[in-house]
Amino acid sequence: MKLSPAQMAWRAAQDITDGAYVNLGIGFPEMVAKFQPPGREAIFHTENGILGFGEAPPAGAEDWDLINAGKKAVTLKPGTAFFHHADSFAMVRGGHLDVAILGAYEVAETGDLANWSTGPKGVPAVGGAMDLVHGARRVAVMTDHVTKDGKPKLLERCTLPLTGVGCVTRVYSSHAVIDIVGGRFVLREKLPSLSHDALQSMTGAVLHLDGPVADLVVPDL
Amino acid sequence: MKLSPAQMAWRAAQDITDGAYVNLGIGFPEMVAKFQPPGREAIFHTENGILGFGEAPPAGAEDWDLINAGKKAVTLKPGTAFFHHADSFAMVRGGHLDVAILGAYEVAETGDLANWSTGPKGVPAVGGAMDLVHGARRVAVMTDHVTKDGKPKLLERCTLPLTGVGCVTRVYSSHAVIDIVGGRFVLREKLPSLSHDALQSMTGAVLHLDGPVADLVVPDL
Amino acid sequence: MDKTLPDLATAVAGIRDDMTVMIGGFGGSGAPIELIHALIDRFVATGHPRGLTVVNNNAGNGHVGLAALIEAGMVAKLICSFPRSADPVVFTERYLAGKIELELVPQGTLAERIRAGGAGIPAFYTPTSYGTDLAKGKPVEVFEGRAYVQERWLKADCALIKAHLGDRLGNLTYRMAARNFNPLMCMAAATTIVQVSRIVAPGEIDPEAVITPGIFVQGVVEVPDPAQEEDLNRAGARYPLVAA
Amino acid sequence: MDKTLPDLATAVAGIRDDMTVMIGGFGGSGAPIELIHALIDRFVATGHPRGLTVVNNNAGNGHVGLAALIEAGMVAKLICSFPRSADPVVFTERYLAGKIELELVPQGTLAERIRAGGAGIPAFYTPTSYGTDLAKGKPVEVFEGRAYVQERWLKADCALIKAHLGDRLGNLTYRMAARNFNPLMCMAAATTIVQVSRIVAPGEIDPEAVITPGIFVQGVVEVPDPAQEEDLNRAGARYPLVAA
Question: Which of D144, D208, D209 sits opposite C122 (nearest CB)?
Answer without folding.
Answer: D144
